[in-house]
Design goal:
This protein has about 290 residues and is α/β, with parallel strands linked by helices. Helix content is about 45%, strand content about 20%. It contains eleven helices and nine strands. Strand 2, helix 2 and strand 3 form a beta-alpha-beta unit. The chain is globular, with a radius of gyration of 19 Å. The termini are far apart.
Length: about 290
Amino acid sequence: MQQSLVSIGMSVHNGEKALLSTIRSLQNQTHEHWELILMDDGSTDNTLGLARNIDDSRIRVYSDGRNRKLPTRLNQCVSLSRGKYFARMDSGDLAYPERLECQMAYLESHRKIDLLASRIIIFAEDGRVIGTYTFNQTHKEICNRPISGFYFPHPTWMGRTKWFRNHPYRVDMHKSQDQELLLRTYKTCYFACLPNILLGYQKNSLSLENILKSRYYFSKALLIRSVLDNNYFLIAGVLKNIIKALIEAFAITTGLNYRILRHRSIPVAPQEIHQWQRVWNSCQENLNANED
């Protein structure tokens, strides 16, 4: 029986340093029937050259030389997808070998679920484990406090391609586009998160600029929904975002950004660290073999 095709959408901007290890993690998948739609988002380094030199017919590379940002590129990826399922992936992150297989199997047996995520492990550029994030498994848990955001890791998303086509990203949301989409759909759609770690998420430091942008765009999403849904309670989330932004700005400008990163994460079990090390080593060894 033919396995269902999984389309993977990836937008890359100046990602030459980690692109090949990310691709290798996809080539290590136990579910081999996938396609990668790789959108170069106006890179000025050698990202495009590296991508075009990868010898794998499952990878399609697109470039128009422009920097159009993530939501536009993801919508393009969805429109070009040929698979029954659509999965997210970011350059620099590493998918565990069983990621696609586990998520697809879950969606096949849980037809009510529209969007599926998984737990992640946070790692530094050298592969060192930093921790993981708060885990919410059921739709009720994930959507418990929408004004505070949704703990639902965007790089791990997988859903039916039809769902993504029916619910495109807002192209004016240059940050927090995932939160806006969840805020827009959580009342009529169903989400779930797998309890196992299926992706390594690279995070080396916190950028004050990115944090402030994320707070701004999530506040914008809350204001839009409060008007469209006549739910002015969501405005309380805007105030909460302003307070958090002030605290984060103070901490980062006083040199505490790594401590904040540690504070935001929670410890990982020893067996999960061991599993991650196998994933990391596999990608690095295969990469080094290619270079030799």
